[in-house]
Every structure is written in C-alpha cells, then in structure tokens.
C-alpha cells in the first residue's frame, strides 16, 4: 500500500518549510496568493489531504460536529439533520452522522466513538440514550438534545417542540370539522409520545369528550394496529390522531384496505409534517414541528457553549397545524 502523503512531502516538493505549507493550506492571510496556489497544486498532485483529527489535537478544535439519531427510517430525524448541516456549514463546521437502528447499545457505542474523535460538539436526536451516558459525553464535549428526554440533564442544552400543544391543535381541528369520536394512535413510553398523549387527553376533556377517549398503543406486546382500528371503527370512531406521520400512513393504508373513504369516513391527522405528508394521496394533515429550525437552534447553542457559555439553555418551539386533504 502506498504511504499516505504528508505535509513534509508537500514541503519537499515545493521547496518550502512544513510550517509554510500548513499555513498555506489553512488559508492563512499571511501567505501570498501565488505561493498558496502553487502549494495547493502540489498538494493536489500528491494526493495530500489534511488530517483533521491530528490538526484538532494541536489546535484543540476539529471543526466537526457529531450527530446521533435513533434511526434513518423516520424522515423527522433526517429533516432535523438537514437543519443541523446547513447551520453547521455557516459556522465553518462539518457533520459526522451516526444512527443506532433503534438499538440503545449501538447508540451508546456511536456516542462514545464520536467523543473519542474529539468532535467539537454533539447533537443527539434520540430519546433512547440513558441520562448517565449523555451526562458522561457532555462532560467531554458540548451536547444538545433535540426532542425530549425524560427530564433535563445537567450540563446539556435542549431544543424541543411543544408536543402537548401540537396534540391539542390536532384535536381542536378534528372537533371543529365535526368529528365527535377521535382515537389516538401512540407508540410507547418515550417522552414525546407521552406528551402527545397528555395533550390529546386534555383536549378531548376540554371539548367534553373525555368519555370517548380511545388510545391505541402500538408498543411491543400491544394489540395489532389493524385489530385495534377495526374495533374503533366498529364503535363509531370517525377520526384518528396519530403520533407521527409514519403511523398516520399505516392508518390510512388500513382504512383504504377496508374500503373506507379518507376523510369522508375516517379523518386522519399525523405529526411532524414530514416531506412524505405532501406526497401521499390523500395528502396528510399534520402537526408541523419546525424541524430544520430545531436543528439550526441546536447548532447555535453548541456555538454558544464553545464561546464560553456555561448555563444550561432549554428552548421550546411552537408547532403549527398544516391542513390538507386527509381531514
């Protein structure tokens, strides 16, 4: 295997010092433009690439952000990452992305790997990591949680969506449209799911519908979605508020298989307002989390930490409802 070219190799070919090569490739204003261009051409000819990690050990900065997401399956995560990447680029930072396929152990290993690479900051878009693991990582590098953890973790900033408000927006819209029996499809005990369930139940009570609250829990071991929906439809439920867009698509799919009309027979509201919501038929009414803004705010909070801020910041953004054909 051919050895990887080094700064010394570039300097020898250019007939200059290694330090001058380093300054030129960093874009230091003290290096003349013609000299910098000549050194860059030689570096390209040799195939030299800067060793970011080695430079980071010297400078104390790698200009890398690590991003951890639960899974690539849900567009909610990837759309937040898009916001992170755009904001990071504006600050001269690059992004390393890892995902855990909804495996807690794998997520923890990835978090350890990123801290071991001396990234300048971490954005965690997952509620699957244990608080102790997050706190340990935050002691090594600034860390921002996007989305909910069960409780604030000392030393960690967060950017969250007001999920209880989002659920209320969905229920209010369905009731205003004349729907009198609204079921909620949820998905377990994670913080965002619990907040959306609380918001749903509170809104139903506010509308005098507490006696027809119906929660379909898709947690492992719970009833099959199809069976639970069949039972709800048999009992006269004419609307479903789903915990996210992916679950809403599953509801619509089952309704169409049963010959139901959406929204005439069953109105459906999702959550996240992902790109998929605009590409289905019927197009999906969904609660819009400002995902790209959440990603951008996470980067802003990391930059503040790198600038010396030490107090914890917890931002809560307001969702909106995007009404489409499914209601």
UniProtKB/TrEMBL annotation:
<dbReference type="GO" id="GO:0003700">
    <property type="term" value="F:DNA-binding transcription factor activity"/>
</dbReference>
<keyword id="KW-0238">DNA-binding</keyword>
<dbReference type="GO" id="GO:0000976">
    <property type="term" value="F:transcription cis-regulatory region binding"/>
</dbReference>
<dbReference type="InterPro" id="IPR028082">
    <property type="entry name" value="Peripla_BP_I"/>
</dbReference>
<protein>
    <submittedName>
        <fullName>LacI family transcriptional regulator</fullName>
    </submittedName>
</protein>
<dbReference type="Pfam" id="PF13377">
    <property type="entry name" value="Peripla_BP_3"/>
</dbReference>
<dbReference type="InterPro" id="IPR000843">
    <property type="entry name" value="HTH_LacI"/>
</dbReference>
<dbReference type="InterPro" id="IPR046335">
    <property type="entry name" value="LacI/GalR-like_sensor"/>
</dbReference>
<dbReference type="Pfam" id="PF00356">
    <property type="entry name" value="LacI"/>
</dbReference>
<dbReference type="InterPro" id="IPR010982">
    <property type="entry name" value="Lambda_DNA-bd_dom_sf"/>
</dbReference>
<feature type="domain" description="HTH lacI-type">
    <location>
        <begin position="5"/>
        <end position="59"/>
    </location>
</feature>
<keyword id="KW-0804">Transcription</keyword>
<keyword id="KW-0805">Transcription regulation</keyword>
